[in-house]
C-alpha cells in the first residue's frame, strides 16, 4: 500500500546485547521524508528518543545517548538500532514518519513495536578452537579469528606466547591480521575471550 510502514509487533532483546526495531517503507517519487521520530513509553517515563529532520539527527533522551542510531544511507529504512540493552528499555516504541508531498501537504504514518528485554543465564565464553600448525607463505596476507559464544558482551584479546607463560598482547579485537607475513611472525598465538 501507498507509503505504509512495515515492522514487527513485538521483539525480544537480550540484556546487555543489541537489537533493531524495524521500521521501513518503499520510497515514492513525489513524496520526500520530512521528519522521523521514535518515541518510547516505559513504566517510569515516556518521550521522544530520536528525531531526524532538516537540521539532522538528534538523540533527545540522555539515557539513550551513544546507544541508538538510525541508518543514514538506506532510503526507506528508518529502523532504530539500540546497543547495550537495559531492563529499563522494555516498553512500546513508536516510529512516526512524516512526508512532504509535491503540493506541500504532509502525510503522517506510524507503527508501534513492543520491546521485551530478557536476562539469559550467564554463560562463560566457549572458544571454538582453530586448526593447529597453520603454514602460510612469506609475504602473504592472513588473519586469525577468535570465535566465542556465551553471554554478551564478549571482549577478545590476542597474544603471542604460550598460555600461562610469558605472553605479549597484540590486539583487543576478535581478528588478528597480517598484511605481509615475515619469518619473524612464526610462533604460538592464542586468544582470550571474556565476559561479565
TrEMBL record:
It comes from the Eukaryota. Residues 16-112, 125-196 form the Ig-like domain. InterPro entries: Ig-like_dom (IPR007110), Ig-like_dom_sf (IPR036179), Ig-like_fold (IPR013783), Ig_sub (IPR003599), Ig_V-set (IPR013106), VSIG4 (IPR039939). One of its GO terms (biological process) is negative regulation of macrophage activation. PROSITE patterns: IG_LIKE. SMART domains: IG (SM00409), IGv (SM00406). GO terms for molecular function: complement component C3b binding. Pfam families: Ig_3, V-set. This is VSIG4 protein. It comes from Thinocorus orbignyianus. The gene is Vsig4_0.
